[in-house]
Amino acid sequence: MLKFVKAIYFHQRFFVGIFAIATIFLFSYWIAFLYPIAWILAVLLSVFSLLDITVLFSRNAINANRQLPEKLSNSDLNTIYITLENKHAFKVSIEIIDELPIQFQKRDFLQKLQLSARQKDTVTYGVRPVERGEYIFGKLNIYVSTPLKLIKKRLIFNEDQEVKVYPSFIQMKQYDFLAIDNRLNHVGLKKIRRIGHTQEFEQIKEYVSGDDIRSINWKATAKHGDLMVNQYQDEKAQPVYSIIDIGRVMKMPFNGLSLLDYAVNSSLAFSNIALKKKDKVGMLTFSNEPGNLVAASSKKTHLNQLLESLYNIKTAFLDSDFGLLYAWVKRSIKHRSLLLIYTNFEHMNGLERQLPYLKALSQKHVVVVIFFENTEVEALINKNVEGLPKIAHQTIAEDFSFEKRLMVKKLQQNGIQSVLTRPEDLSVNTINKYLEIKARGLL
């Protein structure tokens, strides 16, 4: 009985009717002939309300189902589907209130539609998570009313559905498709001119117009009597590691995401491209203590292992220990590798404290330090300001921006590659740097 009572809700039309009847009863104190009219209207309202309840509760003629993806992609718009079916022999009005996970902080979800007799329909809406982890969707509340629109019946479906939010695999697939179609330049990826050739020999073939004359094999030419050239191919199966700083400097937010989330999304997209290039990819996280280490591999299934490792990493609240990173890399990564270090430096002093460890790493590996522009500072620099206080703030902002560019020069002087990028351009610029290093044969 209690469940039945809790499922009954009243439409606004019902309360309007009650108010109108009460008003007529009030005026019937002075106008006598309104009194029986008020009673007639009250009886009619009661009868129609009981009829509405009887029709709605006579049988369960509404089905609904919330369809969630197996996993959600962080920072991307993910589509949720709600399928509805009306088994009644008449048109019904539907109100949908979906209890979204607490991470979205949205409590005003409401969608309305009408379903004809025996009709099925699908409602879609999008969600954009900005945190990785487990998300729990609460009750799917469906409020059904007949054409009378006096009473609403509440139905509950799909209570407490759980889905995990992973790093942006949608972004990863986007770059994957573009790579297949050779349209990477549409999103800013550059074609890098190859200087010379790599050292991995493939075969000897006859010379054709356009071949590099420096590759002529004179011994084979003398033997065959025709010009023969050595043919080379890209070096494959080279180890590439994404090293992600999960210290406090990566907690800085930008457009709802932390710098760590941008780094995680970028490393996943980059690792997918590197696997397409037949290289080995691995991952390492560090802060003031060792984090996760996934050894480099070129297997196609290795991407799933990286995805699971990146799924639930979080930032720490202490400064990261680059000395610990150096010791850990020296002990764990024996072969010469490309190390992409995602971190952030806001001051030159911060870079200079870590520079000895970066130089030590660069003696055996190709090191690329990836850090971020402060977009708020850049926006302040480009503003037209007036007044001494605002001009002073702009001058300080210019000093900060100039210091970032000095960091790039400092790293170059010490033989360390670098990428200074806006957070939203991180994936494109990281892949560009990787392609450049491959083309120049630095690894």
From TrEMBL:
The keyword Magnesium does not apply. Residues 204-370 form the DUF58 domain. It holds the Pfam family DUF58. The chain crosses the membrane at residues 12-31, 37-57. Keywords: Membrane, Transmembrane, Transmembrane helix. It comes from the Bacteria. This is DUF58 domain-containing protein. It comes from Gillisia lutea.
